[in-house]
Backbone:
């Protein structure tokens, strides 16, 4: 309720897969990098941050899956 949840969904595969989540502040600084393992047969992983104390502005959430990267943005007001 006082947090931002970002979820990465993939097609289920028969092997464990490692992905990297980056939370990027409005000034471009990466304030959290988290390596997560999606277990074989699973379709998603997520991470969250509490809103309180976060820098105001447009944040970027980036997922690196092998050589592909996916991004989304959100605003903290």
Residues:
């Amino acid at each position: 309720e006082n947090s931002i949840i970002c979820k990465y969904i993939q097609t289920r595969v028969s092997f464990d897969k490692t992905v990297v989540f980056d939370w990027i502040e409005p000034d471009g600084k990466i304030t959290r990098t988290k390596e997560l393992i999606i277990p074989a047969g699973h379709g998603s992983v997520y991470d969250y941050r509490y809103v309180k104390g976060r820098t105001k502005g447009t944040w970027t959430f980036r997922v690196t899956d092998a050589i592909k990267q996916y991004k989304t943005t959100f605003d903290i007001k």
